Amino acid sequence: MSMTADYLELSDVRVEFDGFRAVDGVSMTVLQGDLRFLIGPNGAGKTTLVDAITGLAKATGSIRFGRSDLLGRPVHRIARLGIGRTFQTASVFEELSVLQNLDIAAGAHRGPLTLLRARTAVPATVEEALETVGLAAHRERKAGELSHGQKQWLEIGMLLVQNARVLALDEPVAGMSADERQATGELLHAVGADRTVIVVEHDMDFMRAFADSVTVLHAGRVLAEGGVTDVQADPRVQEVYLGTSGSRGEVA
Amino acid sequence: MLELVDVHVGYGRATVVHGASVSVPDGGVAAVLGHNGAGKTTLLRAAVGLLTPTSGRILLDGVDITRLRTNKRVHRGLAYVPQGQQGFPQLTAAENLQVVADAHPAARIDDVLDLFPALRQVLARKAGLLSGGQRQQLAIARALLTGPRVLILDEPTEGIQPSVVAEIEQTITSLTEAGSLSVLLVEQHVGFALAAAQRYYVLASGRVTSTGEGGTEAHDTVRAAMAI
Amino acid sequence: GNRVDDAGDTAAESCVDTSGDSVKIGFVNSLSGTMAISEKTVHDSLQLAAQQINDDGGVLGKKLEVVSEDGASEPTVFAEKAGKLTGDDCVAALFGGWTSSSRKAMLPVVEGAGSLLFYPVQYEGLESSPNIFYTGATTNQQIVPALDYLAEQGAKSLFLVGSDYVFPRTANKIIKQYAEAHDIEIKGEEYAPLGHTDFSTITNKVRQAGADAVFSTLNGDSNVAFFKEYRNAGLSADDMPVMSVSIAEEEVEGIGKANLEGQLTAWNYYQTVDTPENEKFVEAFRAEYGDQRVTSDPMEAAYTSLFLWKEMVEKAESFATDDVRRAADGVTVDAPEGTVTVDGDNQHIAKTSRVGEIGSDGLIHTVWDSGEPIEPDPYLKGYDWAGELADG
Amino acid sequence: MTGKAVGGNVRRSLPTIAGFAGIAVALLVVAPSLLSAFRLSLLGQFVCFAIVAVGIGLAWGRGGMLTLGQGVYFGLGAYVMAMHMKLDDAGPGGVPDFMQLYGSGEVPWWWEPFRSPLVTLVAVVAVPGIVAFALGWAIFRRRVRGAYFAILSQALAAAFAILLIGQQTTTGGTNGLNGFRSFFGYDLFDPVNKRMLFFLASATLLVMLLAAWQLHRSRYGELLVAVRDQEERVRFLGYDPAMVKTVAYVLAAVMAGIGGALFVPIAGIISPEDVGVVPSIGFLIGVAIGGRSTLFGPALGALAVAWAQTSLSESFPSMWTYFQGALFVFVIAFLPGGLAALSGRRPLRRRRHGGDADPTDAAPAREEASV
Amino acid sequence: MDAFSSQLFAGLSLGSVLLLAALGLALTFGQMGVINMAHGEFIMAGAYTAYVVQGVVGNAGVSLVLSIPIGFVVGGALGVALEATLLRRMYHRPLDTLLVTWGVALILQQLARDIFGAPNVDVRAPAWLSGNVDLGFAQVSAARLFILVLSVAAVAGLGALLKASSLGRRIRATVQNRDLAETVGVSTRSTDRLTFFIGSGLAGVAGVALTLLGSTGPTLGTNYIVDAFLVVVAGGIGQIKGCVIAAFGLGLIQATFEYSTTASLAKVGVLVVVVVFLQVRPQGIFSVRTRSLV
Ligand SMILES: Nc1ncnc2c1ncn2[C@@H]1O[C@H](COP(=O)(O)OP(=O)(O)OP(=O)(O)O)[C@@H](O)[C@H]1O
Ligand SMILES: Nc1ncnc2c1ncn2[C@@H]1O[C@H](COP(=O)(O)OP(=O)(O)OP(=O)(O)O)[C@@H](O)[C@H]1O
Ligand SMILES: NC(N)=O
Ligand SMILES: [Mg+2]
Ligand SMILES: [Mg+2]
């Protein structure tokens, strides 16, 4: 099998908790450069699916990225294969500076000797990421002092320096103001071009503005998949998820 | 109804809100808008008593409650939905509601569940195991269960699916329109916030930089104010 | 610095200052920690002795100036405090210690400093440092007579219970050799960590073994739990008496008279001993510390040790360690327990042995005594059955 | 850019370098000229505790692992050294005195290797290191942490002490091991040699502090803090937090072992009382008082507390316990950053009081996060 | 067979003692997250309460019966005092509570020494609890049987309180999210106090009971504290059920080890068993599952 681009392939993924199937046979393929949105009702299993991909939830079926099978590996090994994620609640290292946060994210492959030495220079990737996520001016601030939105950007920056090939973002713009959402969307578009990106979101305006393709989950199964307009027009999606008013008309 | 007068509040030595005054009209909605980190949550925490202002006063029905403990404020009719889908993770969803009902004899769990039917399916599950949106619905249900006269909502629709968001917005509107409830609302979705609010306040770096009448026509003014 | 094999006098110069009209002595007892229970009482009687000596004009005309240190129930602290008293305070002699580990910890310190320690508690023997005077009983003055007594009473089998440390383990080693030579069967041997409080299993074993008597070297709190359990298990002094060598008067109250009534102990002194010296001692002690206080063997041995030292110094007419040691042999004091005499060869003292029965009044009443002081024999050289030990 | 960062580092390092110089002068010049032989040797013991404290500062202050069992590693180092010294005193093929007295008169096989000075020196580091690695790896891999870890480590200290006490014939039981006459051939009664031991301990402390400094500044130091605050998050960056924690735990154990090994010739004794639950907690108090997450805090705190303990217990023998208790209560409850917090910058307060914590996160994780 | 059944009882009895000592911890540590090292000293306070009450009442039986509720109140009052002065400000850093309460424990111990004297005091057991009861399969000590019954009663009472009553919910809610509990109208301050009162009160009861078995002295509590924490940890923090199983499990293991080896080795053995057990179940017998961390 030869390939030109990375892709993430899930087939028949199931996650069960005490007899309850949170994810119930999901198959999907996400290609590099395709900004895939994952939507669905509360409790549909979106976060659980991300958990399964990143090794946090025990799953059956198969999840492959490139040549590697991800299932059954411990979290940190999956991360080393280039799978990165963010969390619904921003989680950065609050006692460390922005720079240190990024430096740690960049260094999982470092050998013990490098680790035991002090950082003498800022790695180029970190410098780049600081610019990309717009935190260059805040590099020495403790991450705990950042605002909610800045923390979420820092998290994305950490994914970038981590050199993640797959980015799984769980509600990255929740709680952001309209222009912050806009900026984040553009950032995702920029970094997503050569990566495989999955975004879990409930913000339909945001989705409309930035999604390349959409997968809708319902009760642990794929309900619909396709382009933004197709999915929005799907009556089943409207029934279980969108309701009558799908739009707030703010990201214009 | 609820009035915050020149409130200064922060964490430890750092003051985050520098003299904000906000007034929630009787049976109406006041919206607080602002960027991430502006101090919205901080202000609301002061309103319910989770933070103590270094100066300024908080009045409920004209009575100074600045020094009153949070649970006493709640018994006087204040309810709060915190940001971030919080709950009692080790208690089941049902117990999350029951613990509120225990403290409020008049509470009727069935009635609030009618507002969030999706919760009925997960009542026996621990709150910590619920999905983000389920937890948020539970949080609003808990607050309503206290039978509030003033409801303080910190980004209540964050993480909730669109159809339910619409329902929540409707519920808020109908409760306030019935005159039984006043609402202090923090929302990032300016559209809904302004539609519901009689009065808006834009908070920037802990100061109210702009305020005015609510209504959709205020939209452009507010966006301009927030763009600073 | 010196390699070990380099020639040279390595013992520290003594820094004891005797030029003034007072002389310093050091008391080192545990005033905190688990041993404080027992050692505080020794500290009290040492203070009493010092006060009486001072009231009487002191030693060689010099008043005693006492420096007290807390050994904190830890050997390391005993070593440290002994170092401080000898090195910094330059005391003429040290008094104190209780557990064998505290003594072992101080031993190299006093030897290194060329000082003297007076150790007031019965112990396991097999030791004889030139810098320590042992004023409590060694094994042939306590354990061996106790065994003789039991044998005489017809005990054909024993069960050994002890705390898990050096004194009980060594004592039991001796007991086992004695038993072998005297045709006594050892039906069991159990150790509990110091402070152990659950004796149901050990009591079960004791009951099942069904020996004629129990020989207990339990120390401290464990005694309470043991005797309560013993009674709860339906065992009593009538059918299986317990001979203890570490329960003295002040422990009886804490263990509960009801739990102990009729049980046996072996010591050299009881509060009830009938000598004029003891009458004075008990009276003075109570006047000082209150009527409800009792006196016990280690307290008496400590009290006596100070008078022994006084006699040695006055005989030597010097406070210097070497002079005192040379003068020590044959020094005699009429102590509350009776006349005691220092044996200059091994630095122990000749003492009268007693076996007592615990009465319902909480006091211990002598049921047997050796009549006259028994010469100390720390290595049991005078006992054929102890051949192997004696080589140590 | 790079140049600027490095220049900044040097400037930021100045106070630290001054700190090193201050400690070095105080220990190597001032103390020996002012103190009597007894006091100097006492200070030497405290310096050994300070070495242990440096390790605890790393594991607890930086790594968040509240280790209530450092006595175990202190004891391992100390007993290894003590065994060697006992054998050395006994001469080639000889049997240590206490074994003749209480035991079978034969040296058990596991004592034999310690006749060799080289094996002993290696073992002082290796034994605590290996034990800590095995234990730490097993515990951290299974994500035992927070209060679980603390209580488990406390239980280990209790078990270790009981084990030592129970093996009287081979470990000396409650007596411990003492009565040493020489240290690698040097006469321990010689005042000059005693002095040298003090210098040896002080120099070792300085080396350990340097090592800790390097770790604080290193990327590993930053990673350790990250693991302390958000262990799970670190996993998603591709690190194995168990390994990160184990390394700090092993380093702390090795430092404790070295401290123990130096303690033995200076104090002249090691006993189970020095390694159990109480001394293990005792090690923590100095660290807490000095400032657990600072570089010099733990060591200086340990020295200060030990000094205070000795002088207070000399002046008020029965009151010392109250002082000690009050010290614990006061510093931890009201000065969580230790004395260092009084002078320096306050570390950023954790923002996780209840409400800000992740809602899915249960109590155990909050426990971890808080230290 | 007699050996077997009496050892079985010894194990159960030891378990019940552990349970009684640990039950209060299951509440204050398990539910509230406070690592209270002074719990042992609360146990001691209960024991001295029994001593004082006996001094006043005289009759051993009456004083025992009276001491149980009074010991509960004394332990509880100490707990509340501790909570109100120190712990209240430390709920967000639970590991630090361990060190603070250790300091408190030292002080309480020394206080006891100064008030009641260093030596142990004697608390007499009533006649009906000294001696043996024939249970048919084994002769068992009446005092131990009494403690077994007492501990089972305490567990049942506590379990019912936590499970069924609103108090239990309130306690758990408060521990899990203090601020949130306040905002739904729960007075967290009084809930904390009450929880601490009950947890520490149970320590007081344990102390009263322990006078039947062992010494009443300043260090009484220290002997139990490490074991009691192990029970709670092995049971799974926050799990009364787990605490019960762990207590009896450890009691039986210790009794078995002790019978076949020595008391010292048994203690070490139990610790090793717990360490190995936590390898298998790192969160204790009953682990509390939650979703993804961070
Ligand atoms: N560990 C668990 N044990 C039991 N049920 C669980 C567990 N984790 C998740 N669930 C349940 O699985 C379902 C899917 O949860 P998930 O968090 O994946 O939903 P989601 O799609 O991310 O929802 P949201 O949009 O609200 O965040 C929910 O009903 C949730 O309650
Ligand atoms: N616990 C805390 N300790 C110290 N500073 C804090 C704390 N919580 C918030 N802050 C700071 O206070 C400021 C205001 O925070 P606040 O949470 O009130 O903002 P907000 O307007 O609610 O933002 P968002 O829209 O992201 O929720 C921020 O700069 C933040 O870093
Ligand atoms: N010498 C003793 N009793 O330890
Ligand atoms: Mg989700
Ligand atoms: Mg906010």
Automatic annotation (TrEMBL), chain A:
<dbReference type="GO" id="GO:0005886">
    <property type="term" value="C:plasma membrane"/>
</dbReference>
<keyword id="KW-0547">Nucleotide-binding</keyword>
<keyword id="KW-0067">ATP-binding</keyword>
<dbReference type="Pfam" id="PF12399">
    <property type="entry name" value="BCA_ABC_TP_C"/>
</dbReference>
<dbReference type="GO" id="GO:0016887">
    <property type="term" value="F:ATP hydrolysis activity"/>
</dbReference>
<dbReference type="Pfam" id="PF00005">
    <property type="entry name" value="ABC_tran"/>
</dbReference>
<dbReference type="InterPro" id="IPR032823">
    <property type="entry name" value="BCA_ABC_TP_C"/>
</dbReference>
<dbReference type="InterPro" id="IPR017781">
    <property type="entry name" value="ABC_transptr_urea_ATP-bd_UrtD"/>
</dbReference>
<protein>
    <submittedName>
        <fullName>Urea transport system ATP-binding protein</fullName>
    </submittedName>
</protein>
<keyword id="KW-0813">Transport</keyword>
<dbReference type="InterPro" id="IPR003439">
    <property type="entry name" value="ABC_transporter-like_ATP-bd"/>
</dbReference>
<dbReference type="InterPro" id="IPR027417">
    <property type="entry name" value="P-loop_NTPase"/>
</dbReference>
From TrEMBL, chain B:
<comment type="similarity">
    <text>Belongs to the ABC transporter superfamily.</text>
</comment>
<dbReference type="InterPro" id="IPR003439">
    <property type="entry name" value="ABC_transporter-like_ATP-bd"/>
</dbReference>
<dbReference type="InterPro" id="IPR027417">
    <property type="entry name" value="P-loop_NTPase"/>
</dbReference>
<keyword id="KW-0029">Amino-acid transport</keyword>
<dbReference type="GO" id="GO:0015807">
    <property type="term" value="P:L-amino acid transport"/>
</dbReference>
<dbReference type="InterPro" id="IPR003593">
    <property type="entry name" value="AAA+_ATPase"/>
</dbReference>
<dbReference type="GO" id="GO:0005524">
    <property type="term" value="F:ATP binding"/>
</dbReference>
<keyword id="KW-0547">Nucleotide-binding</keyword>
<dbReference type="GO" id="GO:0016887">
    <property type="term" value="F:ATP hydrolysis activity"/>
</dbReference>
<dbReference type="InterPro" id="IPR052156">
    <property type="entry name" value="BCAA_Transport_ATP-bd_LivF"/>
</dbReference>
<keyword id="KW-0813">Transport</keyword>
<keyword id="KW-0067">ATP-binding</keyword>
UniProtKB/TrEMBL annotation, chain D:
<feature type="transmembrane region" description="Helical">
    <location>
        <begin position="320"/>
        <end position="342"/>
    </location>
</feature>
<dbReference type="GO" id="GO:0005886">
    <property type="term" value="C:plasma membrane"/>
</dbReference>
<feature type="transmembrane region" description="Helical">
    <location>
        <begin position="17"/>
        <end position="35"/>
    </location>
</feature>
<dbReference type="InterPro" id="IPR017778">
    <property type="entry name" value="ABC_transptr_urea_perm_UrtC"/>
</dbReference>
<dbReference type="Pfam" id="PF02653">
    <property type="entry name" value="BPD_transp_2"/>
</dbReference>
<keyword id="KW-0472">Membrane</keyword>
<keyword id="KW-0812">Transmembrane</keyword>
<dbReference type="GO" id="GO:0015658">
    <property type="term" value="F:branched-chain amino acid transmembrane transporter activity"/>
</dbReference>
<keyword id="KW-1133">Transmembrane helix</keyword>
<dbReference type="InterPro" id="IPR043428">
    <property type="entry name" value="LivM-like"/>
</dbReference>
<feature type="transmembrane region" description="Helical">
    <location>
        <begin position="247"/>
        <end position="270"/>
    </location>
</feature>
<keyword id="KW-1003">Cell membrane</keyword>
Automatic annotation (TrEMBL), chain E:
<dbReference type="Pfam" id="PF02653">
    <property type="entry name" value="BPD_transp_2"/>
</dbReference>
<comment type="similarity">
    <text>Belongs to the binding-protein-dependent transport system permease family. LivHM subfamily.</text>
</comment>
<keyword id="KW-1003">Cell membrane</keyword>
<feature type="transmembrane region" description="Helical">
    <location>
        <begin position="142"/>
        <end position="162"/>
    </location>
</feature>
<keyword id="KW-0813">Transport</keyword>
<feature type="transmembrane region" description="Helical">
    <location>
        <begin position="94"/>
        <end position="112"/>
    </location>
</feature>
<dbReference type="GO" id="GO:0022857">
    <property type="term" value="F:transmembrane transporter activity"/>
</dbReference>
<feature type="transmembrane region" description="Helical">
    <location>
        <begin position="194"/>
        <end position="216"/>
    </location>
</feature>
<feature type="transmembrane region" description="Helical">
    <location>
        <begin position="265"/>
        <end position="282"/>
    </location>
</feature>
<dbReference type="GO" id="GO:0005886">
    <property type="term" value="C:plasma membrane"/>
</dbReference>
<feature type="transmembrane region" description="Helical">
    <location>
        <begin position="61"/>
        <end position="82"/>
    </location>
</feature>
<keyword id="KW-1133">Transmembrane helix</keyword>
